[in-house]
Input
Amino acid sequence: MSAPKLFHIPLSRRRLVQSLTLTAAGLWAPGAFAELLTLTPDMTEGPFFPDKLPLDQDNDLIRMTDHTTPAVGTITNLSGRVLDKNGNPVKDALVELWQADDHGTYIHTKGAAQGERDPGFQGYGKFETAKDGGWKFRTIKPGLYTGRTRHYHFGVTLKGQPRFATQLFFKDEPANAKDGILRSLQDEKTAAAVVREFKPVAGTTELAATWDIVLGLTPGDNHDQPAK
Output
């Protein structure tokens, strides 16, 4: 009798089989395959974090309470979760978003050098995560300005800790290839962790994307150490 043939199961398939086995056995946990998560890289806050925060700081950047005219630009819906390195949701994390308006201008005293600012655009918003670690923003597609590709700035602050800053980029944006900050992420997986496809929302002219921010935390540190 000939020896049985051996076959190789690719790593990705093995992980799938293992996860299905764990799920069937009732042993699945959020951190069961933490090695599949890629930590979100910390990136520069840039020079245009608002030096004077707007009075309206909610998570809808399109409409301001003291303006009747909404912001100019393509409406974009962003949502996701803040997770620790094992995939567990992080509660009570302050998530901040700041960005350029449709003209490529920030709400900063030096931001006006980029161009005329849209007075109907909030430019900055914040959201505190709940038990599921979830966050969401309604904003616009950021405009271009000299030297950078389209991007959003995000900050995540845990109680008693400094702000963890990162950025989010658009997949297939032509200027990505020349953006020095994005290109500085030489590891392919790390770079892919901050690039997302923004898809059309059915029946509208809006865009939407989901993105999880994964911090370099361990289960035993009580969420004290944001990734650096």
